[in-house]
Description:
This protein is of the alpha+beta class.
Amino acid sequence: MNKTLTKDEEKALLDAAQQVRENSYSPYSKFEVGAAVLAQDGRIFQGTNIENASYGLTVCAERNAIFAAVGAGERRLRALALVTQKLPGMAFNSPCGACRQVMSEFMPPDTPILIAVLDKQKRIVYRKTLRDLMPFPFDKFSEK
Length: 144
Ligand code: THU
């Protein structure tokens, strides 16, 4: 069902995540995140993090990308890519718990999650699955 992405699909998804990151509204954290999801029909939906003076109202890039897809009527999502800057001492930043739960609603556990960091003009990609990030999910896919 969730077949592995081709190199071209991976690149298109990562490019989309990197491009939308330019729209990040993150004046408080200065941490810019771009995300993109690949829908089953081949369309790509993008989202970036949008912060607020009332900090807790911030919405992460991943959720904005997933909600863009679902809002457009596409609920079958094949992969998600995430692009951030490199933080000192961290190999990469992985999605927050709230985003993992939202991913689990629309993506089966074997869904590829590409986590990329930008380090001195280079994009380093870590390949995970949703199962890696969210074992034993509370979702509609798992055997109960
Ligand atoms: N953020 C994301 O957009 N995605 C993540 O995976 C982690 C955190 C955002 C939220 C906030 O705007 C900033 O990064 C710092 O937490």
